[in-house]
Amino acid sequence: MMFADRDYERVDDDDFDEKQRPNVTVVNWSDKDYSVVTIISKDRPKLLFDTVCTLTDMQYVVFHANIDAEGPQAYQEYYIRHIDGSPVKSDAERQRVIQCLEAAIERRVSEGLKLELCTTDRVGLLSNVTRIFRENSLTVTRAEVTTKGDKAVNTFYVSGASGYLVDSKTIESIRQAIGNTILKVKGTPDELKSTHQDSPTRSLFSGLFKSRSFVNFGLVKSYS
Questions:
Q1: Which residues, 6+ apart, have CB-to-CB distance to 89 below 8 Å?
Q2: d(CA 133, CA 173)
Q3: Which overall architecture, per CATH, does domain 113-186 show?
Q4: Lowest mean pLDDT among 7-16, 23-32, 40-49, 149-158
Q5: Which residues of the chain form CATH 3.30.70.260?
């Protein structure tokens, strides 16, 4: 195998929302000599990339696939074989495929960009801050609100529209509205999208793959 076990470790159960768990099944079609991998999960950027790369790293040939990325849920179906033309050969191998795909999908899931607000507590502070987030098209995925004496120490996890990364221009706008000195960005660079990057249109290359099948696209190889 070309991958390390640690690359496919699953997210800690205590830190992962059970509703976000992908549903992965692997079924053999013995009369066809291939296995069908079905994945139902929350849609997100780079989902198709992570899935196909995982199967490729595990030395499977993907010779056909169906992708449906309509709405918040993504449906992926892959027809796979070993390089020698054989399907998944055992229950242990089947579980390994499931676990690796689950881990690949889960590990990129993020609660969002972490913002910390520390200022003098006052009436209406929380509602004003969340209003500014909303006006800038941000979604608060999680919040921790505490008060220490006369100080409000609040932590917000925010994401952009449809769960995409927050661009730096939006963050600067929010910091100017709330106050640069009291709102700190704690997220990693991977969670903050540069304004020089192209805005994502849809995850799963939806411009090409909305409710349609594809063959022989990049890493997806034809098999004969």
A1: 82
A2: 10
A3: 2-Layer Sandwich (3.30)
A4: 7-16
A5: 5-109+203-214, 113-186
